[in-house]
Design goal:
Layout (H helix, E strand, L loop, with lengths): L4 E6 L1 H18 L6 E7 L3 H10 L5 E10 L5 E9 L10 E9 L3 H12 L4 E9 L12 E5 L5 E2 L15 E4 L7
Parallel strand pairs: 2-3, 2-5, 5-6, 6-7
Antiparallel strand pairs: 1-9, 3-4, 8-9
Helix pairs in contact: 1-2
The structure holds inosinic acid and magnesium ion (MG).
Length: 181
Protein backbone atom coordinates (compact mmCIF):
# COMPACT_ATOMS: atom_id res chain seq x y z
CA UNK A 1 0.00 0.00 0.00
CA UNK A 2 1.17 3.54 -0.80
CA UNK A 3 2.69 5.33 2.19
CA UNK A 4 0.27 8.31 2.03
CA UNK A 5 -2.85 6.12 2.23
CA UNK A 6 -4.85 5.90 5.43
CA UNK A 7 -7.52 3.44 4.31
CA UNK A 8 -8.60 1.59 1.19
CA UNK A 9 -12.28 2.23 0.51
CA UNK A 10 -12.72 0.14 -2.66
CA UNK A 11 -10.27 -2.66 -3.42
CA UNK A 12 -9.30 -3.82 -6.92
CA UNK A 13 -11.62 -6.81 -6.51
CA UNK A 14 -14.52 -4.60 -5.46
CA UNK A 15 -13.92 -2.20 -8.37
CA UNK A 16 -13.89 -5.16 -10.74
CA UNK A 17 -17.31 -6.26 -9.41
CA UNK A 18 -18.67 -2.70 -9.68
CA UNK A 19 -17.56 -2.20 -13.29
CA UNK A 20 -18.87 -5.64 -14.32
CA UNK A 21 -22.29 -4.90 -12.82
CA UNK A 22 -22.51 -1.44 -14.40
CA UNK A 23 -21.41 -2.77 -17.79
CA UNK A 24 -24.13 -5.44 -17.82
CA UNK A 25 -26.80 -2.86 -16.96
CA UNK A 26 -25.57 -0.46 -19.63
CA UNK A 27 -25.33 -3.23 -22.23
CA UNK A 28 -28.91 -4.23 -21.53
CA UNK A 29 -30.30 -0.67 -21.57
CA UNK A 30 -28.53 0.32 -24.79
CA UNK A 31 -29.04 -2.92 -26.74
CA UNK A 32 -31.29 -1.12 -29.26
CA UNK A 33 -28.96 1.85 -29.69
CA UNK A 34 -26.83 1.90 -32.80
CA UNK A 35 -24.83 4.96 -31.84
CA UNK A 36 -23.65 4.72 -28.27
CA UNK A 37 -20.87 7.14 -27.42
CA UNK A 38 -19.02 6.79 -24.15
CA UNK A 39 -17.89 10.30 -23.29
CA UNK A 40 -15.17 10.35 -20.66
CA UNK A 41 -14.49 13.45 -18.63
CA UNK A 42 -10.75 13.95 -18.41
CA UNK A 43 -8.75 13.13 -16.51
CA UNK A 44 -10.48 11.52 -13.56
CA UNK A 45 -12.64 9.06 -15.52
CA UNK A 46 -9.94 7.40 -17.64
CA UNK A 47 -9.17 4.40 -15.43
CA UNK A 48 -12.83 3.69 -14.69
CA UNK A 49 -13.82 4.20 -18.32
CA UNK A 50 -11.15 1.92 -19.73
CA UNK A 51 -12.22 -0.91 -17.42
CA UNK A 52 -15.93 -0.26 -18.04
CA UNK A 53 -15.79 -0.10 -21.84
CA UNK A 54 -13.97 -3.43 -22.17
CA UNK A 55 -16.88 -5.07 -20.34
CA UNK A 56 -19.70 -3.55 -22.43
CA UNK A 57 -20.11 -6.11 -25.18
CA UNK A 58 -21.57 -4.07 -28.03
CA UNK A 59 -20.38 -1.68 -30.73
CA UNK A 60 -19.72 1.81 -29.46
CA UNK A 61 -17.46 4.79 -29.87
CA UNK A 62 -15.51 6.72 -27.29
CA UNK A 63 -14.64 10.38 -26.96
CA UNK A 64 -13.45 12.79 -24.32
CA UNK A 65 -14.13 16.23 -22.96
CA UNK A 66 -12.12 18.12 -20.42
CA UNK A 67 -13.69 20.44 -17.92
CA UNK A 68 -12.38 22.07 -14.80
CA UNK A 69 -14.30 22.69 -11.64
CA UNK A 70 -11.65 22.12 -9.02
CA UNK A 71 -8.55 24.11 -8.18
CA UNK A 72 -5.46 22.27 -7.08
CA UNK A 73 -6.79 21.24 -3.67
CA UNK A 74 -9.87 19.56 -2.26
CA UNK A 75 -12.38 22.45 -2.49
CA UNK A 76 -14.60 23.12 -5.49
CA UNK A 77 -14.61 26.55 -7.12
CA UNK A 78 -18.09 25.91 -8.53
CA UNK A 79 -17.16 27.39 -11.89
CA UNK A 80 -17.21 25.01 -14.86
CA UNK A 81 -14.85 25.69 -17.76
CA UNK A 82 -14.80 23.59 -20.91
CA UNK A 83 -11.13 23.10 -21.69
CA UNK A 84 -11.57 20.45 -24.42
CA UNK A 85 -14.87 20.44 -26.26
CA UNK A 86 -16.56 17.66 -28.22
CA UNK A 87 -16.16 18.48 -31.90
CA UNK A 88 -18.57 16.20 -33.75
CA UNK A 89 -21.02 16.80 -36.55
CA UNK A 90 -23.17 13.72 -35.83
CA UNK A 91 -24.47 14.73 -32.38
CA UNK A 92 -28.14 14.28 -33.31
CA UNK A 93 -27.48 10.57 -33.92
CA UNK A 94 -25.56 9.95 -30.73
CA UNK A 95 -26.75 8.35 -27.51
CA UNK A 96 -24.20 9.88 -25.19
CA UNK A 97 -23.26 8.23 -21.91
CA UNK A 98 -21.10 10.65 -19.95
CA UNK A 99 -18.53 8.81 -17.82
CA UNK A 100 -17.46 10.60 -14.63
CA UNK A 101 -15.26 9.59 -11.72
CA UNK A 102 -17.22 11.18 -8.88
CA UNK A 103 -20.17 13.50 -8.26
CA UNK A 104 -19.72 16.01 -5.50
CA UNK A 105 -21.67 19.31 -5.73
CA UNK A 106 -23.33 18.06 -8.92
CA UNK A 107 -22.36 21.21 -10.81
CA UNK A 108 -20.09 19.57 -13.40
CA UNK A 109 -22.57 16.97 -14.58
CA UNK A 110 -25.68 19.13 -14.40
CA UNK A 111 -23.90 21.74 -16.53
CA UNK A 112 -22.46 19.20 -18.98
CA UNK A 113 -25.65 17.22 -19.53
CA UNK A 114 -27.57 20.46 -20.23
CA UNK A 115 -24.80 21.57 -22.58
CA UNK A 116 -24.89 18.30 -24.55
CA UNK A 117 -28.70 18.27 -24.76
CA UNK A 118 -28.72 21.87 -26.02
CA UNK A 119 -26.05 20.93 -28.55
CA UNK A 120 -28.55 18.42 -29.96
CA UNK A 121 -27.46 14.97 -28.76
CA UNK A 122 -30.08 12.25 -29.34
CA UNK A 123 -29.93 11.25 -25.67
CA UNK A 124 -27.71 12.05 -22.72
CA UNK A 125 -27.23 9.85 -19.67
CA UNK A 126 -24.54 9.67 -17.00
CA UNK A 127 -22.55 6.97 -15.27
CA UNK A 128 -20.38 7.77 -12.28
CA UNK A 129 -18.09 5.46 -10.38
CA UNK A 130 -18.67 7.30 -7.10
CA UNK A 131 -21.28 9.60 -5.65
CA UNK A 132 -21.18 11.78 -2.54
CA UNK A 133 -24.88 12.73 -2.31
CA UNK A 134 -24.42 14.56 1.01
CA UNK A 135 -22.32 17.19 -0.81
CA UNK A 136 -24.91 18.18 -3.42
CA UNK A 137 -25.36 21.90 -4.12
CA UNK A 138 -27.51 21.51 -7.22
CA UNK A 139 -30.06 18.79 -7.84
CA UNK A 140 -28.53 15.99 -9.89
CA UNK A 141 -29.08 12.23 -10.09
CA UNK A 142 -26.79 9.99 -12.18
CA UNK A 143 -28.44 7.28 -14.29
CA UNK A 144 -25.83 4.73 -13.18
CA UNK A 145 -23.71 4.83 -10.04
CA UNK A 146 -20.99 2.40 -8.93
CA UNK A 147 -20.92 3.24 -5.23
CA UNK A 148 -22.20 5.89 -2.85
CA UNK A 149 -19.55 7.11 -0.41
CA UNK A 150 -19.55 9.36 2.66
CA UNK A 151 -18.18 12.91 2.62
CA UNK A 152 -14.50 12.01 2.43
CA UNK A 153 -11.95 13.15 -0.15
CA UNK A 154 -10.80 10.06 -2.05
CA UNK A 155 -7.96 9.32 -4.48
CA UNK A 156 -6.87 6.52 -6.80
CA UNK A 157 -8.38 4.70 -9.81
CA UNK A 158 -8.21 7.98 -11.75
CA UNK A 159 -9.00 10.37 -8.91
CA UNK A 160 -6.33 12.82 -7.83
CA UNK A 161 -5.23 15.11 -5.09
CA UNK A 162 -3.21 17.93 -6.70
CA UNK A 163 -2.69 15.67 -9.76
CA UNK A 164 -1.15 12.81 -7.77
CA UNK A 165 -2.37 9.30 -6.88
CA UNK A 166 -4.43 8.77 -10.08
CA UNK A 167 -2.59 5.55 -10.95
CA UNK A 168 -3.32 3.70 -7.72
CA UNK A 169 -5.40 0.60 -8.57
CA UNK A 170 -7.82 1.14 -5.65
CA UNK A 171 -9.92 4.01 -4.23
CA UNK A 172 -8.53 5.25 -0.94
CA UNK A 173 -8.53 7.96 1.74
CA UNK A 174 -5.30 9.89 2.29
CA UNK A 175 -3.62 10.41 5.64
CA UNK A 176 -4.58 13.87 6.99
CA UNK A 177 -0.93 15.00 7.13
CA UNK A 178 -0.69 14.73 3.33
CA UNK A 179 -2.85 17.86 3.03
CA UNK A 180 -0.61 19.92 5.28
CA UNK A 181 2.65 18.97 3.53
P1 LIG B 1 -18.80 18.52 -8.81
O1 LIG B 1 -18.98 19.44 -9.97
O2 LIG B 1 -18.73 19.29 -7.52
O3 LIG B 1 -19.82 17.42 -8.76
O4 LIG B 1 -17.34 17.97 -8.93
C1 LIG B 1 -16.99 16.79 -9.49
C2 LIG B 1 -15.50 16.78 -9.72
O5 LIG B 1 -14.78 17.19 -8.56
C3 LIG B 1 -15.02 15.38 -10.02
O6 LIG B 1 -14.99 15.12 -11.40
C4 LIG B 1 -13.61 15.39 -9.44
O7 LIG B 1 -12.69 15.86 -10.41
C5 LIG B 1 -13.66 16.37 -8.31
N1 LIG B 1 -13.81 15.69 -7.01
C6 LIG B 1 -14.88 15.74 -6.18
N2 LIG B 1 -14.70 15.00 -5.08
C7 LIG B 1 -13.47 14.43 -5.22
C8 LIG B 1 -12.71 13.52 -4.39
O8 LIG B 1 -13.10 13.07 -3.31
N3 LIG B 1 -11.47 13.19 -4.87
C9 LIG B 1 -10.98 13.64 -6.05
N4 LIG B 1 -11.68 14.48 -6.85
C10 LIG B 1 -12.92 14.88 -6.44
MG1 LIG C 1 -13.32 14.89 -12.61
Amino acid sequence: MHNDIKEILLSEEKLDQITTKLAKKIENDYKDSKNLLLLGILKGSVVFMSDLMKKIDMPMQIDFMKVSSYGSGTKTTGKINIILDLHRNDLTKLDILVVEDIIDSGKTLSYLTEYLKLAGARSVKTVTLLDKPSRREVEFEPDYCGATIPDEFVVGYGLDYAENYRTLPYVAILKPEVYTK
